[in-house]
Structure formats: C-alpha cells, structure tokens
Amino acid sequence: MDRPQSQADQPPRIKSDEELREELGEEGYHIVREKGTERAFTGKYWNEKRTGLYRCSVCSNPLFSSASKYDSGSGWPSYWQPVGAEQVLEERDLSHGMIRTEVLCAFCKAHLGHVFPDGPQPTGLRYCINSASLQLDEDV
After folding, report:
1. Where are the domains of the chain?
2. Exposed end of the chain (fewer CB within 10 Å): N or C?
3. Read out DSSP for 91-124?
C-alpha cells in the first residue's frame, strides 16, 4: 500500500515571478532572477550571528549552515562550504569584464552570488552570497 507523501518528502516549490517580486521586492527579484548584486554591508545577513540553516529564498533548498559562516570583511554573508556539493551549482561568469564563478541554487537556479579561492581552511573557498538569496531557518 502506498503511503501519502509528507510535506518533507515533496520537492521544494518554486515561487512564481509575481510571488517573488511581492516577497523579495524589486531589488531581491533583480538579484535572484536577473543576477544582480546587493551593495556591500546592506543585506540583512552580512553580519548575522544567529545559528541555523540558510535556505534559498526562492525554493527553500538548504544551502549553507551557520557553522560554515565567517566574517570575510567583504560586506556579504560568506561561507567556506555549502551544506552539500549537490545543493549548489557553479557556472563560469564572464560578466563585467571579469572571470568569476557564479553560485546558483541547484534546485531552482536562483542566483546566489559567487565563490572565490581566498577563503579560510579547510576548503580555502569564500562563498560570497547575497542576503536577498537567503532565508535563515533558526529551527535547524
């Protein structure tokens, strides 16, 4: 006999463009859907100290743990690793005359930020993420 799926068993729901604009505002929408960047030291999580799990603001996919968050001095939330390699995608970004590595949510492809090879050990990476791309779940 098949059991009904619980909410935890179901994949995250991707919000419509209209829902995203309403929930995130124009700047948040621009960041997650049009690959924008918030100004340094302005996002709600750049200096956040509470513990928990940072999820994608579009689909709630788990992305980063507060245990891997650190103060990079960059003005954006920074992490030395995602909660799992399968949670994020990395793509080459040649915009603005630079060569960078863009970080995207693996489930909904929301733009999160960029990853740089100047972070702390043990990974040596700095995932520099826009606050608008995140929602903190303190219950985890």
Report:
1. 14-137
2. N
3. EEE-GGG--EEEEEETTT--EEEEEES---TTTT
